[in-house]
Structures are given as C-alpha cells and as structure tokens.
C-alpha cells in the first residue's frame, strides 16, 4: 500500500481521501508514476480562486477555461461573468470546482495508466 502523503503531500480534505482510495492497491513504483502524472495535471484551488477574482476586473471566465469548460468560459467572457452573478457563485464554490476537476483528472490518469499497464495492479476499481 502506497503512502499518499509521501507522494502527494499537497493534497488535503476530500481530495486526499479520494486519492488515497485510488492508490490503496498500488505498489510504490505505480504510486510514484500516478503521483507524477496527477500532480502535473491537477489544479490547485488557490489558483482557481485567483482566476475567479480576476473576473471582477474584466477577465471573467478564465477559471472556466483552465478547468476545461470552454463553453462556459466563452459565455462568461461575453456576459461579464453572467453579470457578475456567475463569478460570485464561482467565488463561493471555487474549492468544489477544483475538487471536481481533480477527481476527473484522477480518473483519466488511472485509465491512462491502466491502458499502458494492462493486467497490472493498477486495475483498481474507479
């Protein structure tokens, strides 16, 4: 069983628990590979907060582009963050936006590693 905090010490809260469940059947080499890929692709909640705050200064929707939600990003740009209401809502929910994105990235990372190493211990239930 891999130690999640040794591989990904920046995780906290629900994300830590979720990733710990994903990594429970991995050995150290697999956990290290997963951690490298996941760390490179995950988004920090503080970065989402900063990008959301930029929405009040004419750059609405940047956080949606970073989260891969291109359609909403364009909508936010064209409507000034849905008249700032959408930006305020996203400001309140920035942690959940980052968490949902990171969980999606964790699934994609596991699927990618499972495709590259079929029949390995990486085939954990997602």
From TrEMBL:
Annotated localization: Membrane
Key word Repressor present: no
Pfam families: TM2
GO CC terms: membrane
Every TM2 domain range: 47-92
Domain of life: Bacteria
InterPro entries: TM2 (IPR007829)
Keywords: Membrane, Transmembrane, Transmembrane helix
Protein name as catalogued: TM2 domain-containing membrane protein YozV
Segments traversing the membrane: 48-67, 73-94
Topology in membrane: Multi-pass membrane protein
